[in-house]
Amino acid sequence: MSKTIDIVSLYPKDMNIYGDSGNVLTIRRRLELYGYHPVVHQYNQGDEWPEQVDLILGGGGQDTGQKKIIDDFYMRADLLRKLAADGVPMLMICGLYQLFGEYFETVDGTRLDGIGVIGAYTVGQDVRMIGNLVEHSAQFGDVIGYENHSGQTFLRDGVQPLGTVDAEGQGNNGKDHTEGARVNNVIGTYMHGSLLPKNPAISDFLIETAATRRYGSFSTTDQTSEQAAELARLDQVAANARKAAAARPR
């Protein structure tokens, strides 16, 4: 019998923009092709929290979306902090990346406190950073995606970025050439696109971390030859998509 991996899709109703739901689909499909049994729990405000959580995926949203989920988000803050400290792998995109930091001050001066998983703060600006993006990561190689945000995020001293960007006007804040953040097994990033279909290395990091945490190791003993072939095909599709996306103008 296939081993189960429980995935939480965090606030998909209000925090799902620019294709971020594709990250959930990618994790689910790759888990299946590795021989695991993925169970996706869509968690929106007011829902019951799942008993088992192995991996959490959160997307971006407009400021209005952040304000809709914020009360429930605060109610779950201690739990999310505990899970992050315990090593649960998480990927937070854009708006939820901001709320996993210390605070987000919107362009109109409204301050939304974050939950402090990531040592970072965000300040809204009138000018958006928008366009195709390639960043360089020591662990994942070049990461390919698409950013669209007005918030400028600044990492506290000692916080590791997900990667670096070459030009000013890109990344976390357009100034220090950082993009995203890494804390324990939590990844925060502004990369939409969606991110995971084009970046299998990040998908597999999340999957292998989740499986190892739950079962003690990551194993493909239940993977069939047909599944392995399909996974190789998807990896080639991703490689082609990465090459095309990296060549596009910003």
From TrEMBL:
EC number in record: 6.3.5.13, 3.5.1.2
Catalytic site positions: C94 (nucleophile), H192
Superkingdom of this protein's organism: Bacteria
Pfam family, one: GATase_3
Gene Ontology terms for molecular function: carbon-nitrogen ligase activity on lipid II; glutaminase activity; transferase activity
Binding site residues for substrate: R128
Any one of the GO BP annotations: regulation of cell shape
Catalyzed reactions per annotation: L-glutamine + H2O = L-glutamate + NH4(+); beta-D-GlcNAc-(1->4)-Mur2Ac(oyl-L-Ala-gamma-D-Glu-L-Lys-D-Ala-D-Ala)-di-trans,octa-cis-undecaprenyl diphosphate + L-glutamine + ATP + H2O = beta-D-GlcNAc-(1->4)-Mur2Ac(oyl-L-Ala-D-isoglutaminyl-L-Lys-D-Ala-D-Ala)-di-trans,octa-cis-undecaprenyl diphosphate + L-glutamate + ADP + phosphate + H(+)
Pathway field: Cell wall biogenesis; peptidoglycan biosynthesis
Record-linked CDD domains: GATase1_CobQ
Domain (CobB/CobQ-like glutamine amidotransferase) ranges: 6-199
UniProtKB keywords: Cell shape, Cell wall biogenesis/degradation, Glutamine amidotransferase, Hydrolase, Ligase, Peptidoglycan synthesis, Transferase
Subunit text: Forms a heterodimer with MurT.
The family this protein is said to belong to: Belongs to the CobB/CobQ family. GatD subfamily.
Role this protein plays: The lipid II isoglutaminyl synthase complex catalyzes the formation of alpha-D-isoglutamine in the cell wall lipid II stem peptide. The GatD subunit catalyzes the hydrolysis of glutamine to glutamate and ammonia. The resulting ammonia molecule is channeled to the active site of MurT.
Name the UniProt record assigns to this protein: Lipid II isoglutaminyl synthase (glutamine-hydrolyzing) subunit GatD
Annotated organism of origin: Bifidobacterium imperatoris
Lineage: Bacteria, Bacillati, Actinomycetota, Actinomycetes, Bifidobacteriales
